[in-house]
Amino acid sequence: MSRQLTTRPGPLDEMVDRQPTDLAFHTDSHTLVYLIHGVTGTPTEMGYLGRRLARHGWDVYATTLPGHCTRLRDLMRTSEEDWLTHVKAQLAFARERYDHLYVAGLSAGGLLALDSSLTVNVDGLGVFSPTFFYDGWKTPWTRALLPFVIKERRLQAHKRASYGSVSLLRRWIMGLWTRMTHAADQAISAPLAATMGYPIFPLKTLTNIDRLSTLVRRRLGEVTAPTLILQAREDDITGPRNGELVYNDIASLQKLLILLDDC
To answer: Contact, 95 vs 61, CB < 8 A?
Structure first.
């Protein structure tokens, strides 16, 4: 039987550089799982995983990367160095307070997890759809022109459509219902960017991600923490060779790559 999640005080309340949009689940555990969302995303996208992990009895913290969950202009003021500094500072805080520390990230968040493990001693890594190559089935050849072009137009068109008036109303109603039933996870007054992320990737941000991927790829051979890699076989943006690259290049003795079907 899964346990009921309730809000309670705990060591994560004092997390360094904590943001109102961060998600924290206290279970009185000596183990913390630290989750990192993707660039332009939000901690909400890690909420389902966080709740499931917490129900298994582990403390969980889903961070908000600098420049996220507010305004697009705030994202434009940040870089990969700001994201790395933020994650490492919070992991260092957690390392002093927990016996066991695990870190997992989605897309660029997975790259941040990999690099941070070289600075902060972690007990294990979760790397979900890491992004080194944009080789998914919906990524056009024009992606190779970065940093001179912006991200795939059909993806942007899809996101813009999701921000249309009808879609926004539908999502607002669904979001209101979700917040009423999961009040511990989200505040009713949370802005749209805090729950849905930003609708586009600015060119500067894509350049930051490219620099981050170059940095992390160069240091993959230094990663030694036990690592779980999850990668969809038919991802629309980042294909299986991204997960295979991590698996083949890291120096971890314990590592597992799982390719997911119908995902």
So the answer is: no
